[in-house]
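One thing: could you explain this record?
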Amino acid sequence: MDILIVDSDTGIRDYYRSILSSEFRGIALDFESTAQRAKEKIIQKSFDLIITETMIEGEIFDFLLFLRSNYLPFIIITSEQSQRLIVECMRMGALDFLSKNKIKTGIFPQIIVRALLEADRWQHLIQAEEEIPHRPEYLKTNEQLISFLTEERKEMARHSMNEGLLTTKFLEPVEGAAVHIIYVYARLIIPDSYLAVFDEPKMTALKMNLLTQITGVSEKYGAHLWVTKEDSCLFAFYDESYMQAVLSAINMRAAFQLYTITSFPEGESPRLNIGMAAGQTLYRMNKTEIYSEALNLSAHMAIYGNKSHFIMITEEIYRSIGPRAQKYFFLSDPFENQNVYSFELIA
């Protein structure tokens, strides 16, 4: 079984590999980040199913039309929140449509199973539809609706940028650009008592469930999920929206704390450490090729910080968030020769 996943967010690829490899034997996964690269790969190789984000480089509706015309069944998984987009994608032949913040729920493998079971019938239906041509008036009206939705999506991206709420992927930096990035590194701390009684599969499931509690929260504030590891996540903000980044961290912590309070015994709850740093970065679509002192610093704070269940920020971020937010952060001991501040919910 061969599946092609089209998504410019390389950070989510490890999750796809983990969940799909555990659910389906003999599965082969390919990844591409743009519509054009996906088309080139499809010409060279046959696939049983295409899974695509809508926010990729290249016009999404042209890409879906390409998939349909080549009788390739496809599923949409997207970060966008538009009912009109759902309608148009389904009309173009999508076998299913899933919000990205729901991807880490148990429903995802079942969606893939249903799509694969329906694929051959779907292909016959598409071929049958082509034997009955559309009215010219329909084609004209359909083109107008698609054009309207395309412009609406672009306008939403511009509005989000002006409001400081980034819409992911529309604002993806170009390859090789020097970009100012705010890094938010979140790391789980699991009590030793859990390590003693949980076997590896249960521990992996626990960590994935805990990370699920925070990823959706951060993305609502415009964060780009770069990397998900076994016990941590790395998010990035591509402009100087310091307040959005700090708010995302505070709300991640709150959501995590609420979940653990209601789901774990008192005194034995998992903890979440968050480190934040910002700086210039030479951007690469392949995130594994990126080197950044700010990225390393954010990770070091989350991993090696001397407190538990904290948010730690650099002095640059502290000075950029304004007095109303600053009153919740207090100067800590220097970390790696830098002044850092820790969050405390008192004022």
Remarks:
- The CA atoms of residues 94 and 309 lie 42 Å apart.
- The two ends are 57 Å apart (CA to CA).
- Residues 136-162 form the longest helix (27 residues).
